[in-house]
Amino acid sequence: MSVEEVVERVGTFPARHVVLTGGEPMVAKGIHALAKQFQEAGKHITIETAGTVAPGGIACDLASLSPKLRNSTPLEGEIGEGWRERHENLRLQPEVLREWINRHPFQLKFVVEQSSDVEEIETLLAKIGASIPPHKVQLMPQGIDLGTIRGRDESLIDLCKRRGYRYCNRLHIELFGNTRGT
Question: What's the chain's average pLDDT?
Fold first, then answer.
């Protein structure tokens, strides 16, 4: 679909909020033009991004930044070694995250699998070098089924309370299961 066709189709729905997501929406051809047209149409624009591509003046009302932690790197043999190495080298871009944070209202969302992930998160927050209030940080348990999520959420909720972070459940898993496109 062209940018104009996407904007026209979205305009048939009564929603005022639009979420640009992906994979990584910032590499999509025409993403800046699409965001601009949604802005001109009076839509609230949330961009869900890993924060590895600079905003470059994109229209955005909320940057939902989801940097990829070590736990997101595929294990050896799961995918080609070249891709795995590239992912590991590029997954965290503190200077790009800082640019998003300085230009747009933001939230930072992290998928947590184990306690060491929190140390990685806090190291990254320090490297970003911007003022990040704890309530802007959301922690979400890693898991593709309710049993795994429920096994991790109690300790994660406690950690959020102690540090002032926000807990974010995986509602899409609860509602639809581990289904592509939800």
Answer: 89
Give pairs for 68-72: CB < 8 Å, separation 24+.
68/92, 69/110, 69/111, 69/112, 69/113, 69/117, 69/120, 69/121, 70/117, 70/120, 71/111, 71/112, 71/113, 71/114, 71/117, 71/142, 72/111
Radius of gyration of the chain (CA): 17
pLDDT per position as a tens digit, 80-101 = 666 667 766 787 899 999 999 9
Total domains present in the chain: 2
pLDDT in tens, 102-126: 999 999 999 998 878 999 999 999 9
In this structure, are 56 and 96 located in the same domain?
A: yes
CATH number reported for the structural domain that contains residue 70 in this entry: 3.20.20.70
On whether both 125 and 47 belong to a single domain, the answer is: yes
* Pair 21, 88 in one domain: yes
**Cα–Cα separations (whole angstroms), residue 132 to 39, 92, 97, 127, 165:** 26, 17, 11, 11, 11
Q: Containing domain of residue 62, as a range?
A: 3-131
d(CA 110, CA 42): 29
138 and 178 share one domain: yes
Integer Cα distance of 49 and 167 in angstroms: 19
The pTM score is 0.87
